[in-house]
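Practice problem 4.
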């Protein structure tokens, strides 16, 4: 029967099953992606949750749409933000991106008022 198949090929030993060495590369990739993507994202989400929980009336905030304002009223889900003199908007708490240092809102509105008068 060995007319078409050489005897040397038939003598090759069976392939061995990969051991722990075969799993090191995929596990390394998973660990790499965890530290590169998942961990920093969960850290940022935790910091944002703490920031929103610590928010008080009078805080100066920037929304996810880029609107700067001062928190005037709050409830469990929504904030009432003053964006200019007697101009208010309501936004969800989760749409707040950052809290600005005190005085930022006043400096910006003073600048806008002086520009509009001239």
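Answer key:
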């Amino acid at each position: 029967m060995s007319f078409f198949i050489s005897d040397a090929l038939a003598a090759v030993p069976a392939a061995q099953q990969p051991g722990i060495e075969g799993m090191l590369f995929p596990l390394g990739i998973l660990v790499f992606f965890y530290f590169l993507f998942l961990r920093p994202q969960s850290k940022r989400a935790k910091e944002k949750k703490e920031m929103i929980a610590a928010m008080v009336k009078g805080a100066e905030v920037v929304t996810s749409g880029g609107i700067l304002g001062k928190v005037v009223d709050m409830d469990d889900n929504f904030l009432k933000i003053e964006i200019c003199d007697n101009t208010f908007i309501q936004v969800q708490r989760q749409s707040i991106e950052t809290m600005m240092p005190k005085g930022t809102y006043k400096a910006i509105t003073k600048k806008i008022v002086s520009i509009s008068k001239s």
